[in-house]
Amino acid sequence: MKCLHNICFVFCLITAQVVYAETCTDEVADLSKCLMKAQKGDAEAQYNLGWIYRQGKLVSQDYRKAVEWYEKAALKGHAQAQTWFGVMYELGWGVMGDNKVAAHWYRKGADQNDQLAQLRLASLYRQGKGVVKNIKEAERWYLRSASHDGDYIYAKKMIQEMYTEKESDWPSTSHLIK
After folding, report:
1. Quick one: fold of 2-176?
2. Dihedral sign for Cα atoms in the order 107, 109, 115, 120
3. Can you give the pTM of this predicted structure?
4. Domain extents in the chain
5. Cβ distance 84 to 71 under 8 Å?
6. How far apart, in whole angstroms, are the C-alpha atoms of residue 175 and residue 25?
7. pLDDT tens for residues 113-123?
C-alpha cells in the first residue's frame, strides 16, 4: 500500500508539472531577465527560477538553488512556491527532509486554494506525517482538491479508498463522490 501511495505521489508531481510548467523563460536571454526580476523581489520570477533549477532547464539541476528561490517567493505569499517549497521538504530535495515543515507550507498553499498543496496536505493528515493523523482533515483536503476544475483523479481515488477501508471515524459522505 505504501508503495502505491509513493507511485501515485510521483504521478501527481509529474501531472502537476503540466499545471506549473510556465516559466519565465524558454530562451537563455529570458533567463537573465527573469534573474533580474527575481533579484528585485518579483515573487513570480523567484518561483519560476525555483522551477527552472528544480527541473534543470537551461541550467544544471540544483535543488539547493531551487529551494532558495522557492523560499523567497513562498515568504512573499506565492501559493505555488509555498507548495513546491513544501514538496522539497517532504522529499528532502536540497534540504533535510521534514514533514512538519512540509505540512506548514502545504497549509499555506492549500489555504490559497492551491490544488497540489491540498492534495499533499490531505495525504499527510491521512498518514499522520508531520501532523497528527486526522481522517476528517484528510477528507476535507481531499474533497477540496478534487473539487477543482480538472479534478485530480488521485484525490477521488484516495477518498474512495478511504471509504472502502471503513476507517473508524469516517463520516458517511459517499454522496460527495462522483
Report:
1. 1.25.40
2. negative
3. 0.77
4. 2-176
5. no
6. 44
7. 999 999 999 99
